[in-house]
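Field reference: sequence -> structure
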Amino acid sequence: MPIPTQPAKFRSCGPAGKDGCNDLEFNELGGTRLPGSTGSKVTARAEPPTDPVQETPRLPVAADTAITANRAPSMSSGWLTTSERDALWKQIQRGMPYDDAVRLMKFNKLGAGMGVKFELTSRLLEPKPRADAPPPTLLAESFANPIEQELVDEINTLYRQYDSLCLMEFWRMSDFMRDMFGKAADQANAGKQGGDLTGWSLYKNLRPLYRKAGYDSPFEELNKIQKTTFLGVTIGTGVHPDLAKVLDAAAQKLPAGFRFNPGVFIGGFWPRAISDNKSDLSNHAVGKAIDIDDRGNPQFSTHEAREIDEVLKWLKAQKDKGAWWAEGPLRGPWPMAESFLGGPSTPTRDGIIQAYQKIKDNSEWIQAFLSAMLPMRATLKKNAAGKSLQKAVSDFDKAQKLGDSGNGDAGGQAKDELETSQNLEKLIGALGRAAPPVKAEDGAKNGIVSLSVEVFLALWEAGARSGLEYDHKKDGMHFEVRPELDSRGKKQKY
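Structure field:
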């Protein structure tokens, strides 16, 4: 396709034009002319279209649409070649933002070629401005490449066709799945206080992650998800058949009549990314993971796990010094931000028991400390903020560095009191940032694990992986299908 020509305009101060300025136009092929002479006129550059990703598509959904995930829609003409459209179509499905696509294609199609010509021809400006005049400035509306808007429109069309593809797939989902996406969107909007997600737009946002995880036709996999029950609890959000088999097998391994306590909630399918890694799809988003009694078995991200480790380390030091609240038979504690297994990634039965015992031990440390200190929290905070306690600790620390006993036992007691308050607040803060948040009073009463070791063992034997097996965080409520039991034979994320 031949490149059309269009003049661009410069302004430089000088005597020839209005207000002492010259308005000059030049053609990107090299010609220049003065205002008023014959030649093509400059047309103002059109504003870029509104980002189509943020708009609800108003396109008809047809089962026989020619739009497919594997190949870009064909166009009768355009500035993008077939290979360029296919490459961009793949990037769109991988989640490339609209603005990034426009910038990239402008550079590829315009910047590398036409931009050089513009730079060279701009030196042909005549007449020369006065020596004391400022340099010429390019009028923004005049330097637009004539094919730029056509290219932007072509990219815009691809994004709108992608919207149509996502909408078509969304309506091919079961009523149950569409309803679940709608509920997830409503929850996300409530968290953002006025968000505008809908079920279909949430699906569109997550679709690149489904594709990345290997689900080429996500809606087909999602339509397999159904409600089920496990140990007397209905999983109303549904699970994938791969996980349903695991749950049925686990139930058979437990004593007859084994049931969860009334009020226990089990969550299954939920469309989202991994909680602390938004670039990967959660197994919950395909119904291949469940969370059992999340309030009694909270998830601690890496950051919260490390904070709890700092507190546990201090608690152990206090016990070794004979702290009155730690007189009971406490074992451990064990690092939360490290592996509980200390062995292969696929644990043995003994490894599962070991991992469970470690989270149970840590839970008992937390319960002992909170039970003893929560009644004194207000007094501890008040004293820690007081200047007298801070001065006593400062004097004690200085004396210790000099090898002097300083204020002796009184200084040591002051330091213990200050550190007790600091670690109590750090622990309460980490519990409050767990998922879901744990109130300090609940932590003192129930700790951070409510499930029995029998449940962990039954699910492990049936083919589930526990969140206690993670090496960088701990998620005691979480159980997912092991990779070797995934019907697709692919490794899954948690």
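Note: The first helix runs from residue 82 to 93.
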